[in-house]
Amino acid sequence: MMRGNLFPSVLVFFPILTAFISYASGRKNKKVRDLIVQAAGITECLLFLAAAVFFEETQEMFFTWEGFAGLGMHLELDGFRVLYGLIAAFMWMMTALFSGEYFTHYRNRNRYYFFYLLTLGATVGVFLSSDLYTTFLFFELMSFTSYVWVAQDESKESLRAAATYLAVAVIGGLVMLMGLFLLYRTVGTLDMASLYEVCAACPDKRTVWAAGICLLFGFGAKAGAFPLHIWLPKAHPVAPAPASALLSGILTKSGIFGILVVSCNILCHNANWGVLILTLGVITMIAGAVLALLSVDLKRTLACSSMSQIGFILVGTGMLCILNGGGNGVLAAEIAARGTLLHMMNHSLIKLVLFMAAGVVFMNLHKLDLNEIRGFGRKKPLLHLAFLSGVLGIAGMPLFNGYISKTLLHESIIAAQELTLRAPISNWVGAAFPFGYGLNAFARFVTSPQMLSVIEWLFLISGGLTAAYMLKLYICLFWEKNKNAEEQARFDGMKRYMCPKSTFAVIGSAVLLPLLGLFPYLVTDKIGVFGESILHVVVDHERVSYFAAASLKGGLISLTIGFLVYFCIVRTFLMREEKESGEQMYVNRLPAWFDLENGVYRPLLLRVFPAVLGFICRIFDTLADGVLILFRKTVFRESPIPHEREEGTVFTDLAGSVCDLVHRALNRTVRRKHPKIRQHSYRHVIALKREEFRENNILIARSLSFGLLLFCAGFLFTVIYLLFRT
Q1: 416/421 Cα distance (integer angstroms)
Q2: Nearest to 402 by CA among 464, 469, 349
Q3: Which residue, among 148, 135, 146, has the nearest Cα to 176 in the 3D structure?
Q4: Going by C-beta distance under 8 Å and a sequence separation of 6 or more, which residues neighbour residue 550?
């Protein structure tokens, strides 16, 4: 039974329905299919824009489908959901316009567009879900449909990266499902609006924490948080550029959305949980920046950059829980909440611009290595301006959108330091941690004034590394010249490197970045407040002086570090002079052992674990056989297994006689010249087969395997009965 308003369901199922229409039309006319896909993206964006404009009227809008997949489907519209649904629809619209030219020389475009629209519906379903069961359903659908994007090229590298992506998604989904089981069993609901109160009142904090950690594993895998980030550097270089923009800009934010739900609803701004998220965020932030700095592949650099920016968002989430959890920093927590939401939005829009710009490079050159694409952007002013807008935005340059959100995140860390000077956070951090083993002491250590100062400097250094690797890409593409003069002349001669639709998608997206940075009080702050409904923070609308000297100081420190890293490390350690031409070439200094997937995960999962588990199983199998033999010889004395009898039974005798008659008849007719010689009567052969089958059945019935087989069959029938019974 369906209840509520149908509008949220239209937002989810309209793209899914259009996916089937576009696929059917693509079998007949590819141009019509492209127009349908683009129209679907534009329509979805307009629907969300209408929801944003008339937000007061849609604030109480919800849709419920009782009985769907057991626990039902629950969708809702509020400030955050409208905001991120609009961002998702806008990104799909722009990438749809860009994809028309980008996929001109691709195979299997019909398949790509089909899963492209399915993923849009699933992603919108994740953001509009009002209970975690609905989130899980659309989350898993989104993971499987987006797998096709990574495998689109069907090359060896693409299929391997897609396998990694799918493995992380499946393992994360299974762990997430375990967390949902624990949570539902403990508090009796998965409704997000109810979780805050019931989890706060739940006496079984250990189980709530265990469920939260399982959910963090599943959502963190999709977000690309360390150590589950391994799919990001592998998937982006091989996926088409429009898909990379969506994977980085939106699909990772679906994981962040889940982490926010866990942090602000299930763990109720628990300060200890904030310490955990903050620690993961700092590691992810630094590791992603280092990987991006060492990369010499354009899209891989942008992928590792996404990992680093996810770390920035997690740092904001951790500070939100720490500041709000103790009650002493409620107003500062609102700054952390606004910074977290705005950096989510800013990163989505920035990566849309940067990956589409990288797509322009790839669709003209079919190369991504910095040494081969060097100088491509010279004499291309539109591409130059768009890419520069993305570079300045993500580097945190004042007057661009990234500066606003990074300033808010930095201010939240400073606010925590000031609180520790007045009233030590250690008084309330660690008091409610449900596990021992020194973790309470670790929580107090992380939130000490000295460690918060270290975290602030790591935050500023990560911002500096961001500026360094983006400066590396920018100078390589738009200022340096290619070592091959003929190739550079070909680059400079490209006048139509983008069609009008692609130009509109790239430039239209790039224009938003300075607009959001130039008018923080009129636009950006209001957007941040608009989306804070999901975070359960006290909204005080505290005004931050973005362009005061104290605020500019942090941004300028990061930019200074970035310039120093670029000129002292990138231009020296990360480049070498080619002996023949004397040209400076970019070099990959990343050691092979730094690859977690190939160095740790694959050996563990494919070699170590199977060997260890196989050894353990062999030991238990030997013990079980020994016990069975002991029981056979003592308690259960068995009769010997009967041997075969040549005479067989009446049925074997009859069947054998018939076969003998047929054999003789064929020898006298069809095989007259070359009769088939048989050594035994069929009566004898069939009797032997019957006795062999009987002996095997006796052996199986007396073995442990037969008991396990019966157990599995009984379990299967029990599950089927319960499914139909309920």
Answers
A1: 9
A2: 349
A3: 135
A4: none
User: Are 370 and 494 spatial neighbours (Cβ–Cβ below 8 Å)?
Assistant: no
CB burial readout 188-208, b (16+ within 10 A) else e: ebbbbeebbebbeebeebebb
pTM exceeds cut of 0.90: no
Show the CA angle centred on residue 708, arms to residues 706 and 711, nearest 5°: 110
Tokens of 658: 């018939």
What are the structure tokens assigned to 648, written together? 């067989």
Contacts of 246 (CB under 8 A, 6+ apart): 91, 92, 95, 119, 146, 149
Rounded Cα–Cα distance for residues 566 and 563 (Å): 5
| Separation CA 129–CA 85 (nearest Å) | 11
Q: In sequence order, which ranges of 103-204 are alpha helices (DSSP H)?
A: 109-128, 132-150, 156-187, 192-201
Burial class for 715, CB neighbours closer than 10 Å (0-12, 13-18, 19+): exposed
| Dihedral over Cα of 230, 345, 254, 110: its sign | negative
Which of 216, 328, 335 has its CA nearest to residue 281? Answer: 216
- The four Cα atoms 554, 557, 562, 567 give a dihedral, to 10 degrees, of 170
8 Å CB contact between 69 and 177? no
Cα 41 to chain centroid distance, Å, stands at 22
Distance CA 258, CA 264 (A): 10
Element (H or E) spanning 723, and its range?
A: helix 704-725
Supply the pLDDT for residue 288: 92
Q: E-assigned strands of 524-634?
A: 575-577, 584-586
Distance CA 62, CA 10 (A): 12
pLDDT score for 283: 93
Tokens of 442: 């670790």
Tokens of 139: 């989350």
Cβ contacts of residue 338 below 8 Å, gap of 6+? 408, 525, 528, 529, 532
pLDDT at 555: 87
Q: Would you give the distance in Å from CA 131 to the centre of its chain?
A: 20
| Separation of alpha carbons 410 and 429, rounded Å | 21
Dihedral in degrees, nearest 10, Cα atoms 446, 452, 454, 457: 140
Tell me what pLDDT residue 460 has: 94
Task: For residue 714, give every residue at least 6 positions away whose Cβ sits within 8 Å of its Cβ, in sequence order, or none.
Answer: none
How far is the first Cα of the chain from the last one, in angstroms, to the nearest whole number?
17
- Say if strands 575-577 and 584-586 run parallel, antiparallel, or are unpaired: antiparallel
Find the DSSP H helices in 266-400: 271-294, 298-325, 330-365, 370-373, 381-395
Does residue 143 contact residue 222 with C-beta atoms inside 8 Å? Answer: yes
pLDDT at 430: 45
> At residue 191, what are phi and psi to the nearest 5 degrees?
-70, 125
Query: Letter for the amino acid at 508?
Result: G
The list of the chain residues with pLDDT below 70 reads 1, 56-60, 325-331, 421-439, 538-543, 593, 606, 625, 628-629, 631-651, 670-680, 683, 688, 693-716, 718-726
Per-residue DSSP letters for 440-499?
A: HHHHHHHTSHHHHHHHHHHHHHHHHHHHHHHHHHHHHHHTS--SSHHHHHHHHT---SS-
Residues 227, 604: Cα–Cα separation, whole Å: 15
| DSSP track, 85-114 | HHHHHHHHHHHHHHHHHHTTT-S-HHHHHH
Q: How far is CA 2 from CA 5, 91, 135, 402, 423, in A?
A: 9, 30, 18, 42, 52
Work out the burial of residue 537: count CB atoms within 10 Å of its CB; fewer than 13 is exposed, 13-18 middle, 19 or more buried: buried
C-alpha span between 242 and 672 (Å, rounded): 72
DSSP letters of 409-420? Answer: HHHHHHHHHHHH
